[in-house]
Design goal:
The complex is a heterodimer of chains A (about 60) and B (about 280). Chain A has about 60 residues and is α+β, with helices and mostly antiparallel strands. Chain A has 3 helices and 3 strands. Chain A has one domain. Chain B is of the alpha/beta class and about 280 residues long. Chain B has a single domain, classed as Aldolase class I (TIM Barrel). Chain B contains 10 helices and 14 strands. An 8-stranded parallel barrel of chain B has the order 1-2-5-6-9-10-11-12, surrounded by 8 helices. A two-stranded antiparallel ribbon of chain B has the order 3-4. In chain B, helix 2 packs across helix 3 and helix 8 runs parallel beside helix 9. At the A-B interface, strand 2, strand 3 and helix 1 of A face loops of B.
Chain lengths: ~60, ~280
Amino acid sequence: MTCPYLAYRSEGDGQSFDTERAYCTAADRFVQAMRADVCNDRYDLDHAEDCEIYLAHADGES
Amino acid sequence: MSYESFLAGNPLVVTAALTGGVHGKEANPNLPETPEEIGRAAAAAERAGAAVVHVHARKPNGERSFATERFQAIDDAIREYADDVVIQHSTGGTGAPDDVRHQPLRTDPPPEMASLDMGPLNRYDHLTSENTRGLVDSLYDEMRERGIKPELELFNDGHINEVYGLLERRELADPLYATLIFGPGTLTRPTPENFLNAISNLPDGAQFNTLGFGRHQLPFATMGVLFGGHVRVGLEDNVYYRRGELAESNAQLVERVVRVAEELGREVATPAQAREILGL
């Protein structure tokens, strides 16, 4: 299961791209390539364990 | 290598790290991601003075790819646009399984060089790129089998110990080529004292490459020039030209370090000279 805060967008946070890219709706910004693998739970990665942004929001922080 | 090596006038090998696997166009829209963009960036970097290009692969949306086919497309583009530049593939990949980390070595022809991360480093707050000795050995063995020169990436001083460990387990061809990496986090703290300490601890006969992250890129490259080493610059490691000003291209960063080298009287190596220096 991918991160609930993950969206694919071509525009956001003042940037625009030809191809939709991984966007973190919790942090309100496009994410780095390496972090996108965490958002998507690829390989051995797990957003619920490996992403400090998810963990902070899951704990109710803003 | 030392200041005497600088005085001896040995040519400087400039590596351009074009893309990387961490940040992308969200950090600097000038960072090349597609094979076409990477091919053209390699050619521009070569014209600016780079003898080696260090490449990572991306999917069309900028996300990481470790697929042989994607590296093949990049190599094909580099060979189409560039003249004679040495291609160096990354085998790095935080969170990627070991078998996936081997895929960049399997293009046809293989890359002349590939990176070999010599130990663990932390990423973000909850991730570590493990780079176990088992993975180092298996990547090294496949590189040797395919005739690929390893570029040993030393993220901190502990990884210098790992080089000596690898030398006990495997017979590396001369010259050993190691990149010393300076910056925040798990990296060696970026101080001149640590730079001098690191180069003095390398095995005899080693050639070293100098990599400073972010604002440390140019100062540490300059130290690499002055102490007879080689240098790596590029948007993988630093997206800025100066504070608050994004770099326009990889070539712009190469041009700057070439100017510094030439002002200091250090000849910049052609790809052919780089092959001779690095024993490719």
